[in-house]
Design a protein that fits this description.
Blueprint: H1 2-14, H2 20-30, H3 35-46, H4 51-76, H5 81-84, H6 103-118, H7 120-139, H8 145-180
């Protein structure tokens, strides 16, 4: 943990700046409750051509919620860095849940991975935004670097799994529809 505090304190000493503070707060807000990614999922579900991507996003975000937020956070129960180093002035309201893994990071990378695998034009900017959201969690001193790293890895895994699950379900549905049609 000493190395993790070294990284967090280095960010506070060398990168934190009054001009950056509101920008970082805005960036982290984009990840609050996964609302940006949920909104994008709903938007993509409207068009028939992007419904498979929307389904994969929904599966990925569901995996993040179930495995990360509802299972791992309470199971591991890691307290947040600002609770250990209480001299830190938070720029956001103190999160009330546990620290490991970073839910903001996990949901952001899950969604970005789905987008990267289904549409690179959306996936590359989504990955960049996910990286900024992940960094914001350390800048704001609400997550340890390993929380963020775990969120990144789990998010990418869940995004990849979600795309595979939706592809398999779609393939089975397509096969079922083909078998039901009479041959001419």
């Amino acid at each position: 943990m000493e190395f993790e505090f070294f990284i967090l304190d280095w960010i506070q000493t060398h990168l934190r700046h009054p001009i950056l503070d509101p920008i970082i707060v805005f960036i982290t807000t984009l990840g609050n409750a996964g609302i940006l990614w949920i909104g994008l999922t709903i938007l993509l579900a409207v068009r028939k051509s992007t419904r498979k991507t929307a389904a994969a996003l929904a599966v990925a975000l569901g995996l993040c919620l179930l495995c990360g937020n509802l299972l791992l956070k309470p199971l591991i129960g890691r307290i947040r860095p600002f609770n250990v180093q209480d001299a830190i002035t938070l720029l956001i309201a103190a999160p009330l849940d546990y620290s490991f893994p970073s839910g903001h990071t996990m949901s952001s990378f899950a969604a970005a991975m789905v987008l990267l695998l289904t549409d690179r034009r959306m996936g590359i900017p989504a990955m960049l935004l996910a990286g900024l959201i992940a960094f914001s969690r350390m800048y704001l001193y609400v997550h340890y670097p390993t929380d963020v790293l775990a969120g990144l890895l789990m998010g990418c895994l869940f995004g990849w799994l979600a795309v595979r699950i939706v592809q398999k379900l779609h393939a089975r549905r397509f096969q079922g529809n083909q078998q039901e049609k009479p041959h001419r």
